[in-house]
Amino acid sequence: MDYQTRLNSDITKEIDYLASLRKQRMVADLRTELVYGSLERLADMICNTVTDWSLPCPVLPLSSVQQWHKAREIVLADYEDFGHDAWDVARHYMKTELSFGYACYKDDIA
What we know:
This protein has helices at residues 3-20, 28-47, 62-78, 83-109. It is mostly helical.
C-alpha cells in the first residue's frame, strides 16, 4: 500500500472514530477532549495530502476536502454543546498549518 492510499485510509478511520465518540459512554469533558484531539489529528493528516505547496492557498485533493467537510458535518451535528467551538479551533489550526507549510516551501526555494 503506497503512502497516499494509507493516508486516505487513516483519514477515513479518524472520521469513523470521531463519529463513534458520540455513541460511547464517557464523561463529557473527556468526550470534548477526544473530539478536539481527533480534529487536530485529522487536520494534520489532511495537510499531509497537499499536492502543491507553491501557491499561497496550497492545493488539496478533492477527496481530502470532502473528508474535511464530512468531519465538519459530524462535529456540528453530533456535538451541539461544543461542536461549533471545536470546529472553529480545528479550522483555525488547519489554516495555520497550511500557511506555515507554504511559508516553509517559499523559504526553501528562495
